[in-house]
Amino acid sequence: MDIVGLIIQLVSGAVGGNIAGAILKKFSLGPLWNSVLGILGGGLGGYLLSLLGVAGAGGGGVDATSIVKDIAGGGVGGGCCWPSSA
Question: CA 21, CA 7: separation in Å to the nearest integer?
């Protein structure tokens, strides 16, 4: 995984965590902690999806396909790692 893909996954994870916090207002931890958990989930989700060959499979380049896969992996990971059952 290259650094650009990792940054994209972390940023999209933070966005995904904040979207999850906005949707599930009862469980929201505030913008800071939603972002922190989203970043953790985005990094972990992007990593796991890259192991499965789903995200970041574009050969490490910065093309549209790799960027979209990194955004999807980070956003989904950020939203899923968010503590909706807290």
Answer: 21
